[in-house]
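FAQ: What does the model actually see?

It sees only this:
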Amino acid sequence: MTATAQRLGAIVVLTTAVIVSGGPAFVSPPPFSPAASRIASSTTCAGNLHGEGSCFMPLVQLDSEYVAPRIVRVAGMYPGLTASELAAPSSDDPAPTGQWTYDFSDPDGPQMGTVAFEGGQVVCGCVDAVVVVCEHTALGVPLPDALTEPADLVALIDRSKTGFVERKFLVTSSGPDAAIEIGAYNAMSEMPAGSSIVGHVQLVQIPWLPCMKTKKTGFAEENEYF
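And it is asked to produce this:
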C-alpha cells in the first residue's frame, strides 16, 4: 500500500471515530473531463469508473452557499461547571462555505465528547465555540409536563464574547475554579458580585422527545413541539 493510500485509509477510519475539524476537506474542482482531468489511479479496476460506459455514480456537488454542520466540543454539565472547565476544550474554525472539515482528535486537550450543530450563520459565526449540556430546568426552558426528570439541552457558547449586553444570556463566573452561571440581565449591576463574563449563549438546541407532538399541523399556533 502506498503512502498516499495509507493516508487516505487513515482518514476513512478516523472520521468514523472522532469529529470536529481542523482544515478544509473539499475544494470545488473544475468542470469534469474524463479524458483530460482524471488523475491516474494507483490501482486497477475491472469494472467501469465514474463516467465510463455510461456509468455514473450518484454524486452530490456542494454549491458555494453550502454551510456544513459544525461539531463543537462539550465542556461539561451545568449546573456545577467551573470557568476553567468551560475554557478547557479547544475550538476549531468552521468549515469554509461550500466545504467541510475533518478532526482527528485533540491530543493536547481533555478528551471530551463532540456534538453536531446544523450549519448556519449563528453557528459559523462563533469565534471560540464550546458546548455545555444543560438541564432544561436550569435554563428555565418549558417542556411538556409529562417529563418526569430534567431533559438535556445543548447550549452553544461563544467564549470570545465577554462584554455585557442587556437581556442577552451570558455565562458568568467569579473565578477559574468557581461554578459558572447562565442568565440574562437588564443591567450589569444585576450580575453576581465579583463575577466576570466568560461567554455568551448563542444557541440552545432542544431535542425531540416522545412526549412531544409528532408532526406539524399546518397551523402556526399549533406548530410548537413543546
